[in-house]
Amino acid sequence: MVFRGKPSKGCGECRRKKIRCDQIRPACSQCLKSRDGRLCPGYREELALRFCDESNEVAHKAQVKEVLKLRRRAHGSVNPSDSSEASSGSSSDFDGLCLTSLRNKSSICSFKGSSLPGAPGPSVETQGIQYFLANYVTSDPDLCSGHMQNLLSWKTTQSKTLQVAMEAVGLAALSVRRSNPILMANARRQYALALRMTKSHLQDPAQCKQDRTMTAVGLLGFFEVMTCSSSMSMKAWTNHINGSIALLNLRGVDMLDSEFGSAVFIQARSQILKSCYQREVRVPPIILELGRRLPRTPNSSCSIVNDLADSIYRLCELRASIRDGSLTDPYTNIASLLELDDAVVNWGAERSSQWDYTIVFDSTKPSIIYDDAYAVYHTHWIAGVWNVQRATRIFIQEAILAQIDEMLAQPEPIITTLDPQSQRSRSLAIICETAFDICASVPYLLGHDKRYDEQLSSPAPAVWAYFSLPAIYLAGSTLGVPQSMRLYVLGRLRHIGHSLGIQESLMMAAILQSKIDEGKVEELEGLPRQFREEMGRSVEESYDKVCWDGAWEKSSQNEEQDPECAAGGMYFGGWGQQVVSSG
After folding, report:
1. What is the pLDDT of residues 366-402, one digit of tens each?
2. Where is the Zn(2)-C6 fungal-type domain positioned along the sequence (predicted)?
């Protein structure tokens, strides 16, 4: 071990600019207050920098010295000056190349907890798997409330394909997080290898029906999300989604014979539904069939998720029918969409109290918390499911607004009981309210909860931010939301991309930025808090009817203490939410 001295504790940007860093975590004040809006790159691990394991370098130099000695013996004696010149010339380039390679393999992708400070770290590929398992695989007794939990037993399957695919995804995320092109090159090499191995499995009639083959296809699609930088990446992701659908058609109901297979289907279904509502296409029949065969125990996680999935099926069917001209009557379409919206609002009406969430007010971190309030949930998975429900409502209201425009564009006015302008105002209000609820979930999804920690708590697994990415982007790009919300979402998307290594989030941020710059997003007049108070007054009359037991009394107590906080709590829409003032 070689002692390198005491390193600087400042963040990377302050060290580069040679200015004093206050070392506040997770981001220093110098970066947060910068006019150019730069992101704080974070801090180095001090212990890992103080000592360096140079065993490989020393061993390599000894080997080079031995080679030169053997070469001198083979060619006869040489004078000392020639020997010195040969040593400095012939070995320097070779030695420098090898040292560069060793440093790249050992230091570019270490992460907290991977190894003891100063000890030889695991290989690049091993670190990729460790990062992937730590951030994108969660376990839960209920099949529906985890994410890729089937991969926790990947070693028992002895699948080299799954191992290589996980290495590719983990290295890709680390590469984006650390802005390291060498890691990305390693990730793409592992991806190409996993692609070849999966292709060989698909050509085998027996292996193509195995759960691990289906899982590998899903991981390949996940890699395209982690490295998404253009429309070609999304096209490749769609191709992998279509591959998953083809495998499900091949396997049929046998897919659900094992717990492992059921978990694989649930994970594949979430990605397939995401693809369907983004492209406005119908859900494949095999998804509907297998979804109906999943267990629906009352009040269980799977039952609640399946109920929400049923509404998404209907939304995809309606949007696809409107798009291909199967449904042409705007009034009938609006009626169907309103009926579907009622079903989504009343989704899981018999949910347990664990689905309640608490509103916490905190004005100390405006860059992290939008409009001084955020929601705390029982689990990150529940927060993600809530955001799927909210995104579904926004899609429904956007479709209603599009049908209202179709109705008003008719050469002859349609005589109906529906007031188009009144419905347009209601839809815009619902969109804005729902977008606020999505923004309020973001701090918790990223690990912030001031009730227990004055600073950011340990980050939540990156999978939950990834799970809510479509909803977060929708909150910033949909109709009618304030410019301040769009800018907040823009900042959070960039943060998720850089800090969690999700390239798709950075692409979403770039698209949103271009829309803002080009003025392609519609504004709704009024400040967020004013709008929130108006919504609170309109909801107050029926609030006690839709909230869970006990929530209304808690809101009423807060209203006596702080009417503004109580109005804010009502705005954030929840069922059974509690209001807590903080900071």
Report:
1. 889 999 999 999 888 899 999 999 999 999 999 999 9
2. 10-40
Residue 391 within a domain: no
The residue among 226, 167, 212 whose CA lies nearest residue 192 is 167
Please name the helix (run of DSSP H) or strand (run of DSSP E) that holds residue 263, with its range, or none.
Answer: helix 259-279
% of the chain exceeding 90 in pLDDT: 32
Task: Select from 57, 74, 104 the last residue of a domain.
Answer: 57
Residue for token digits 């599009």? 402
- Specify if 75 maps to a domain: no
pLDDT at 342 over 60: yes
Which of these, 518, 545, 500, lies nearest to 176 by C-alpha position? Answer: 500
> What is the chain's alpha carbon radius of gyration, rounded to the nearest angstrom?
28
Residue 423 counted as domain residue: yes
Q: What's the angle, vertex CA 86, arms to CA 85 and CA 91, rounded to 5?
A: 115
Q: Is 328 helix (H, G, I), strand (E, B) or coil?
A: coil
pLDDT one-digit tens code per residue, 448-464: 765 554 444 444 578 88
Same domain, yes or no: 364 and 289? no
Query: Does residue 289 sit in the same domain as residue 367?
Result: no
By DSSP bridging, strand 358-361 and strand 373-376 are: antiparallel
Are 311 and 369 found together in one domain? no
Where does the pLDDT of residue 154 fall: very low under 50, low under 70, confident under 90, or very high at 90 and above?
low
pTM exceeding 0.85: no
Among 393, 423, 394, residue whose Cα is nearest residue 406: 423
| Strand blocks (E) in 61-194 | none
Of 111, 109, 106, 100, the residue nearest 134 (C-alpha): 111
Q: How many CA atoms lie within 13 Å of 448's alpha carbon, on the beta-carbon side?
A: 24
The pLDDT tens digits for 307-317 are 899 999 999 99
3-state secondary structure of 378: coil
Q: Name residue, tokens 């209907």.
A: 314
Count the residues in the chain: 583
Q: Which two tokens stand for residue 132?
A: 């992937």
Q: Tell whether 23 is covered by a domain.
A: yes
